[in-house]
Structure prediction request, 252 residues.
Amino acid sequence: METGLMGKRVLVTGASGGIGSACTRAFAEEAAEVVLHFHRGQERAEELAAELGGGTVVVGADLTREDEVDQMFAAAGSLDVCAAVAGVWPSADVPVWELPLERWRATVDANLTATFLTARGFLRQLEGDGALVLVGSTAGLVGEAGHADYAAAKSAIIGGLLLSLKNEVVRKNPLARVNAVAPGWTESPMTRGHVSEEQVGRISRTMALRKVARPEDVANQVVVLASPILSGHVTGQVVTVAGGMEGRVIHD
Ligand SMILES: NC(=O)c1ccc[n+]([C@@H]2O[C@H](COP(=O)([O-])OP(=O)(O)OC[C@H]3O[C@@H](n4cnc5c(N)ncnc54)[C@H](OP(=O)(O)O)[C@@H]3O)[C@@H](O)[C@H]2O)c1
Prediction:
């Protein structure tokens, strides 16, 4: 199926991670020119760039830092599409009454502020009818006990930020679009050690499909939302990629 992404320049943040690398490969399969972003995983990003072939641009940045984000966009060159995939899920289960302010701030920064800075940098340089795809989480839809910092940051991304951006991007170009995906549990380095068979059995009790997502399940939806042909009249939407999840098991 034609996606209209051939030759488009696409920045994938978090391309060194599980979902970001799947997005990178999925965009490359559509013959897009992908710019790969990494933070600490330079080696992983460069291996992926080598897999895609010569000339692939790789840029490093801590997306919580304004100066580094500006440098990243300067190095990336002109872009048509941005998939803002980078994010952090602190694995320790800590209820709000024990949550240190330091972790709260770090999580909000690494997810919400990083997404704001990425969206800002992308939109500052946008000239055509580009597409921005944000990455939220089912935590932002149904909450996540022990991870209120992450759930709050992801809610803000797929709520207020997304819906405001939807009506702002058309000031840049009348056909510019912004959408989001909200993945549920997905096999990736982020969830390593949290998706054993027993855990999947428990997690999937509120899901129609009895599996956790593969990174490709999420990446395919990112590509569909980025496509000006498949999603040309779709903006401000959140696509949940969680096997029909209805909520969480609160008690055994
Ligand atoms: N896996 C899941 O179950 C799941 C569920 C819902 C939502 N999500 C969301 O999906 C996105 C991708 O997650 P993933 O599963 O692919 O996790 P992952 O493999 O851990 O990848 C996370 C990515 O974010 C980058 N990153 C982290 N902190 C950063 C910072 N300060 N500045 C710039 N980049 C930073 C990492 O870069 P380096 O590795 O180079 O340091 C890495 O590329 C995240 O937004 C996550 O919240 C994941």
In short: The mean pLDDT is 96.
